[in-house]
Structure formats: structure tokens, C-alpha cells
Amino acid sequence: MNFVVNINLIIYGGEVLKKNSISNINNSEESMNIKRSKKRKRGFLPKLSKSKKILLSVFLIIILVGSLSTYLLFSNLFKKSNSVIYTNKITTEEKDINDSNEHLDVETKIKNILLIGVDKRSGENIGRTDSIMIATVDPENNSIKLTSVLRDTYVEIPEHGYNKINAAFAIGGVELLSRTLKYNFNITLDNYITIDFFNFQNVIDSIGGIEIDVKDTEVNEINKYIKEVNGTNSTLLTTPGLQVLNGQQALSYSRIRYVGNSDFERVERQKRVMSACLDKVKNMEALEYPKLLSSVYGSIDSDMTLANIITMGNTVYQMENLQVQNLRIPSDNNITLGDMYIGSDKASVVFPDLQATTEEVLNFIYPGQDFSTVTVPDNSIQRSKLILN
Question: What backbone torsions phi and psi does residue 290 show, to the nearest 5 degrees?
């Protein structure tokens, strides 16, 4: 059975979804979705209004937006990755922080998905994180929220001391990065998605490229990164200006770091790429989605099954007046820039005000709640070691 038939069965054939899904789908929501789907005629995709195209486009964008990670070989549509976000192995310090924050009441209907873009080179098993984001699906407030984490943020990595936060993934994969985010910022993650350079390029190509306005100062940097990843197969830019970038060019655009305001502007470029992807997917015909989903789903590593993603897409489908909100942490008001010795090497870091940053991100994810009593690690000793620029 080909993929398009499988997708139609999953979306419109309630019994197939009920029988095969191994994800933790709320039974009451599943029942409502099955009843709703039975009212639709089988065998074809219904015409979606422009606003309702968000049903499929959002969960595709949740994948596209991850901006870069590891290839996953699934033997079938519903096989889960062996990776896990959390285990019972935590340090005493982590347990103390968790216990101190047990009193905080958060909305359980809100789901946080860790999006990891990975710079994985030939011969490497894990690679380095090139982007770290958290996609929050908030059905109560009809919103999708994207939190970008500066990769040079200097924090304590459980069991491994202080380092830039992007080192957590290289040391211990998804699990250690998730523990690091939880320990320092009290962010609880429900799922993860990763995508690497080559698969990110393929995904961009599968949607026909994206339109980006390239500055004159960015052209040479884009071409440098294109050649670094693709070698003799490179397709280089020749001019600046508004143009459609293919996968190689879009990836390289999102990686630029030494033009403009370093990592801060890099995050802004990644947001532009995400927005361009969202616009492209939203304007696709509904009949194009199954083929695109087949391409995208085969290019990621995740603990989410296809059924998980479709269920989340259905949650977003029910949202009215959907809003997409963005936050970068640490924000400008909550950082100190400087240098720190990591081993014997001197490196530029972003030193965060953990208390202010944690309150800010929790208020962003869970609006209308009081997080002024949240407990965070004490990084004052490390702060005294910072060499100010």
C-alpha cells in the first residue's frame, strides 16, 4: 500500500488509526476525531479553506522549523525511535531543583517539542547542535510558540560541568540536552525532532525552495557554507536580492554567523527561513501534502509516530485565529557577553541571568501564571569568572 493510501486511511479511517497507533492519544479526543472523520466522504482529500490549511501545514512546519539534524530509518510508519527524552538517571542537584519547583502549576494541555538542528559530518555518530528551538502547541490560547535558544548560552550541563549549551547534545544526545534545558530553565519537554544538514536540504527542495531577500554581504558567506557541506555538488549564489533559494542555499543562509550581529542575527535568519517555509506549505494544494509528509517524515529522527503528528495536526486544526509567536532566550536584557575558559580554550559566551530568563520563558509558554518563585541553579561563582568584553 502506498503512502498516499496510508495517509487517507489514517486521517479518514478511524479504525486504522485506533488499531495501529502506539502513541498516547487521549481516548476522548480520538473518539471525537473518528466521529468527525466518518462524516467525510472517503477516498479524496476535502477542499480546505485557507485558514484550515493550517491543519497539515503546522505539523509539517514543526518539522521544517527544526532547521537541521540526524537521519532516522523507520521500518514502518508507526515504529518509534529508541531514543528517549528523559530517564530516571538524574543528579542530586537536578532532583533538588525539580523538588523545589513541584509547587508550580502548569497547563498540561500545552505540549513542548524540542527541535534540534544538527551539524553532523561524515564519520560522526552524533554531531553538534546548529540550532536549538522549542515549539509549543497551546490549544487553549490558539497559538504556536517558537522559543529559540542561543547556542553559546553558558550553563551547567548535568554531570559535565559548565559549557555552552550546544555541547550538551554532542556529549549526551537528546536526553542530556533535554535535562540541561529542564535543569537551567525548568522547561519540560514532551517530544523531540531532529534533522541534519543533508535532510534539511532535501526537505527545502521538496517544497520547491523558499523566497529570501539576500543581502550583498551575505552572498560570499552563503557560498562558503554551501561548498563546505556539498563540495563539488554545490549550487552557488551569483547575486544578492529577493530570490528563491534551494535546499543548499537555504541551509547555508540559516548558518551564517560572521555577518551582522553574530549568533543573534543568525537566529533571526533562521526565523526568516521558518516563516518562508510556513508560507510555502500553507499555500500548497491539499493533495500535495501526503507526498510532502512522506518526504519530511523519512528525513527526521523523532520519538513522535506519524499518528502522534497527525493527532497534533488535528489539535491545531481546531484552533481559531491561530497565532505564531516567537521568543529568543536569553533575551538582550538578561545576558552578559564575555569570554570564558572552557578547558584550556578561551571562548566567547552568552552568560544568562537564569532567574529572569526562566521566568520570561515560562511566562511565554504558560501565560497568565506566576513563576516568580521558580528555583534555578546558582551560577554566581561562574559569573565571577567571566571575562567581560
Answer: -60, -45
